[in-house]
Design brief:
Glucose Oxidase, domain 1; disordered C terminus; 2 domains; globular; alpha/beta
Length: 546
């Protein structure tokens, strides 16, 4: 039998919840989440992030899946969750890991020789092959000037884009529409010996691109990402004549590396109406991943611990998940969803995703589950999840805006399986706009250059001390000042904005508890059974149907 946890602060059950019928606009039953939100604090989350940083410090400055740093991160969470009374399991799986062995090279040989700076002007794409090539550059179906909206460009997305491509050239392709791996694979199939992917060029999509190709990419060619400005300049030079490029990457891809997902669920609640909340726990190989995605992982951990501490017995099971190998191409979450039976999939009411919720130059993004903003709609019910977050922020007097449901994080496997999903995000490599500064504070430019939501995205400086780890000191001082000291923790400027962390963690806790206590389907098409209403807190689902 399962033991229910109880705490000195008393038991919060569904009897404390105002039971109102769900509306078509929002299937979440109104729930008083104030006690949980007050208990989940940015300070406590930052303490978890300090632990993750210490783990990285002791393990080659990384917590990437397949490394001791990741394994110890799992151990840290597991110990706390078991002590809190959760049912905790590990799900082991294999993936292909990626490392850079030496610094990459990207230089313009002619005309006007120019050496580009790694980590500033370009990045090696994760899962790029190795190679050292000098060859003519060839543009592939570029949209210049860029279209008015993101993903106007389809550069490299179709084999037909390469119909006139000269084998032995290096392909210049533009971000937009399809996965980076598709562009690189099409280029390789057309005979390209290297690929340069540059940012698309709209406001917010100009910064140096740091792409990942995913752990299934295996073409043996160098692939790098660069900024819109550099790509645009190269395209202009091609209009005038031949451009010769030198690319070199030296990488190692190891096959079938073991790693794990960590799953923890409440010992009470309906098993046939599971509310899942997930975050990826792994970092990129190049850094400790304190913002990406220490923030989402630590916020979910603290939410889980406070649910236990407050003695909350959810009406619906809450299942927390910390995914491995997300940075390898969403491997852990996809493995988990693929492992579920039809009944287990049906029992998942919804999935909430929290990937980067403390960006230093943040915005409040809510995934566009309705598709109204970006035209990419999630499964039925996803719009109601979006509405729950939007209504919460509005109730707090906080602005928010939609972000595309474009499959860039772990929700992708769930929506592909037809499970309603949603979540929060505070921004990555794209540049912040002046309009967003008016809404959220921060900086759109610094010393004449655009500033991204997270200037240390996928870098070694995504840490508790980014300046010491290579970030622009003047920029981080300016960001900290713009936010009234919100980047400081124990006297050190970090890569975490504690204002963002507090606001987004509260929103996450609110949504998790709201859906955990709901008697209605998130899709608005079904209600809980009368039996469930009578037996709040008892498991009624498939686990006990024997």
């Amino acid at each position: 039998m399962k033991t229910r946890y109880r705490a000195t602060l008393g038991v919060v059950t569904a009897t404390a919840v105002v039971a109102l019928a769900a509306t078509a606009a929002n299937a979440a039953v109104p729930t008083d989440t104030s006690e949980l939100r007050e208990a989940v604090t940015a300070g406590a989350i930052m303490e978890h992030l300090e632990e993750l940083q210490a783990i990285a410090d002791a393990n080659n400055d990384t917590r990437a899946s397949g490394t001791p740093g990741y394994d110890l991160s799992v151990d840290y969470l597991e110990e706390l969750l078991v002590a809190a009374g959760y049912e905790v399991t590990r799900q082991d799986f294999l993936f292909n890991s990626f490392r850079e062995l030496t610094d990459p090279v990207f230089e313009r040989v002619s005309p006007d020789p120019l050496v580009y700076v790694p980590g500033e002007d370009f990045f090696t794409a994760e899962y790029s092959g190795s190679g050292d090539v000098t060859a003519p550059l060839q543009a592939v179906d570029l949209v210049l000037p860029p279209g008015p909206e993101a993903s106007t460009s389809t550069s490299g997305c179709e084999p037909e884009d390469f119909v006139d491509f000269v084998a032995g050239n290096i392909a210049l392709v533009q971000r937009g529409t399809c996965d980076f791996s598709v562009k690189a694979e099409n280029a390789f199939d057309a005979g390209a010996v290297g690929v340069i992917i540059f940012n698309e060029g709209q406001e917010g999509r100009t910064e140096t691109l740091n792409p990942t190709l995913g752990d299934q990419f295996s073409d043996p060619i160098p692939v790098v990402g660069t900024s819109f400005a550099i790509g645009d300049e190269l395209a202009a030079l091609l209009e005038q004549g031949t451009v010769t490029i030198h690319l070199m990457t030296d990488t190692l891809i190891e096959l079938d590396v073991p790693t794990t997902n960590l799953i923890a669920e409440t010992p009470t609640g309906r098993d046939d109406r599971v509310v899942m909340a997930g975050a990826h726990l792994d970092s990129v190989p190049d850094g400790p991943g304190i913002e990406d995605n220490g923030t989402g992982s630590a916020a979910l951990l603290e939410t889980a611990l406070q649910i236990a501490e407050l003695g909350i017995e959810p009406r619906n099971t809450i299942r927390f998940a910390w995914w491995g190998a997300e940075e390898a191409g969403l491997v852990g979450s996809q493995y988990y969803v693929d492992s579920l039976s039809k009944r287990e999939l049906k029992n998942i009411e919804l999935y909430l995703n929290f990937d980067m919720i403390g960006s230093p130059n943040y915005a409040r993004f809510v995934y566009d589950g309705s598709g109204d903003a970006f035209g990419i709609k999630g499964p039925t019910g996803s719009g109601n999840i979006e509405g729950t977050f939007e209504e919460y922020f509005a109730s707090q007097g906080l602005a928010s805006e939609p972000t595309a449901f474009d499959g860039r994080s772990d929700y992708d496997a769930f929506i592909s399986a037809g499970i309603p999903a949603g979540g929060l995000f505070t921004g990555a490599e794209d540049a912040k706009t002046e309009e967003q500064v008016a809404l959220y504070g921060g900086l759109a430019t610094f010393e004449g250059e655009p500033v991204s939501y997270d200037p240390c995205y996928h870098q070694a400086c995504d840490s508790m001390d980014p300046i010491a780890d290579g970030a622009d000191a003047d920029l981080y001082v300016a960001l900290n000042e713009a936010y009234g000291g919100a980047l400081e923790w124990e006297g050190v400027i970090t890569n975490i904005n504690t204002l963002a962390l507090e606001e987004m963690a509260d929103a996450a806790a609110h949504a998790i508890l709201t859906f955990a206590m709901s008697t209605s389907s998130v899709s608005g098409t079904a209600k809980a059974s009368p039996v469930a209403m009578e037996k709040v807190g008892d498991r009624l689902g498939a686990h006990f149907m024997r």
